Amino acid sequence: MKHSMPYYVSILKKALKDPISKSEALTLFKKIQSYDKLLELFKVAGKVRDDEVGRKIKLMGFIASITPCTVDPPCRYCFRWSNSKLFTSDDVLSDEELEVAVKTLEAKGLKRAELGGGTYLGEEGRKATFHKLTIACKASGKVGIWINNGPSFRPEDVYKLKEIGVEGVACNFETISEEKYRKLRPGLSLEVRKKIVEETDRAGLDIDNTLMIGLGEGWDEQHPYDEWVDFLFYFSKFRNLRIMEIHPFRPIRNSPCQNMPPGSEFETVKAIAIARLIYRRVDISGAQSILGLLAGANLIMHVYPITKSFRAWGRHPLYHSRVEKLHKDLVIVNNLFEVTRNAREMGFEVEL
Ligand code: SF4
Predict the structure, then answer these.
(1) Best residue among 65, 66, 67, 69 to mutate for probing ligand 1, ranked by most atoms within 8 Å of CB
(2) Going from the N-terminus, what domains does the chain have, and what CATH number goes with each?
(3) In whole angstroms, how far apart are CA 352 and each of 157, 339, 342?
């Protein structure tokens, strides 16, 4: 007797050769609900990564902050609630420190670095962003500079960013639900972020964006698979999508979201694998963990984070990551060993 193949299996089979559709992605989110099925999904997503981008892991450095955050009220899940110094002027690197930071990453051999900062609204924010980016781009010809400081500039400013020499723009949505956005980021607008991403694509700059799994979900709610699929496919219209990041929501202590459930790790790795079946050649973050590697990730973010000493961000929960002083109050977390270890031990080629 002939048994027909379950629908999710036929989607996975087809996905080995072709990108999946929106409805197929939704089916996978709904149907992959067990250990065995997750392994089946991983097998295909890993194979697609190997075939399309190879077993090669890219690294992204991190420097923060380049701008303070003036969003009022702060986003309801922001780190600012747990540490009042974060994204204030105390957190912002001086011009000299920024130059040292970029040159340090260049000397380490990194090919790209994300400059993080808060959303500095208004004219002041635009000026500060242009100024800091000019310093960073001049400091190194070899490190591609990516900016991630929210809408600290207008959509049309991306042409100016291009002129300055920026490689890519991360203007993260984290959720594509207008309602969640309004509730959780009342001082900001999703519409403005969408315009920045659209203009970034038009300008020919690279795009990075982040989906936060579990953001705004209640303890008893079903996962919003439709919303995650809408997020993932929103970016399919952009030629210059280069990086997709998928992280679980973390309920930050002392924030209005502190009692909300943390994002599911299972759903996060499922989303990474499903993203790989959609965006075959896009760099997908998460390659520092074994689960991320199994799910088809090929990029490690936040390598060698450089910040003011009070922040020393990016230390590993298990290893005693080395924090080294670079210049005045500037430190680097030497996390290369721990963030690349899994990939190396699993036989991947790591960019450095
Ligand atoms: S824009 Fe970023 S730094 Fe500013 S409040 Fe929102 S999450 Fe925090």
Answers:
(1) 69
(2) 20-350 (3.20.20.70)
(3) 33, 12, 15
